[in-house]
């Protein structure tokens, strides 16, 4: 079968996804190694039997809703190509807002010790470590399999000012940090049923939290001051409807300079607060 015929057939099969043409072309470039302009200008080129069979297998997986990132085992975040697996959440572009806040509002090239709670494939920790050579970042997770992926990513990207360790939130942390960041699970059990089916391929432990999605966020905010130097910052990613509740939790646990920031889609996404006085 030639490229044109395969594309036309695949675009129909993938009509259930948001952008079938883009995804069909993406899978074709991934399997064939041809770039997009070659695909467009040379669409009469025949696919080999091996390419054809492998492509159809990947398209079948995609048609069942499996995210492209799991199919190819990779996702770009902060211009870093990161390995992902079924044990890690797929990093989202919205999370780059949190990285931007740390780098441009708080650090300003100062030497800084950062803790990333719930690091998954290491996206936030690696983006911060790569962008700030004066920083040292520790990423923790309760999923040992996710930590293995994060360590592979650090090795492949040759990022040395980062390390990853097991911890159930703060359970294995015994020092203080300048900055604590987290993109914790924050989706409620009720809300998850309303989301796109792609999400059911991701680890539930990375997504769902009790108390309307706020249980892990509260747990982190409540404990964070013990692990922050005076003047240190806590930054938390949350759901677009959780800003008011998250700001209240920052106030309840005596954080100052509380502010929230929106993602690229204009949704409230990250709330930050500062530890200024030693009062619980
Ligand atoms: C929403 S994912 C975020 C992953 C990654 N930081 C990112 O932004 O792509 C939440 C992560 O928190 C981890 N996690 C959930 N509960 C945890 C706990 N009690 N202690 C440590 N990590 C936890 C999950 O395994 C998952 O990797």
From TrEMBL:
Q: Which InterPro entries match?
A: DNA_methylase_N6_adenine_CS, HemK-like, Methyltranfer_dom, N5-glutamine_MTase, PrmC_N, RF_methyltr_PrmC, SAM-dependent_MTases_sf
> What SUPFAM superfamilies does this protein map onto?
S-adenosyl-L-methionine-dependent methyltransferases (SSF53335)
Q: Which residues form the signal peptide?
A: none
Instruction: State one molecular function term (GO).
Output: nucleic acid binding
EC class name: transferase
Q: Which family does it belong to?
A: Belongs to the protein N5-glutamine methyltransferase family. PrmC subfamily.
Q: What is this protein called?
A: Release factor glutamine methyltransferase
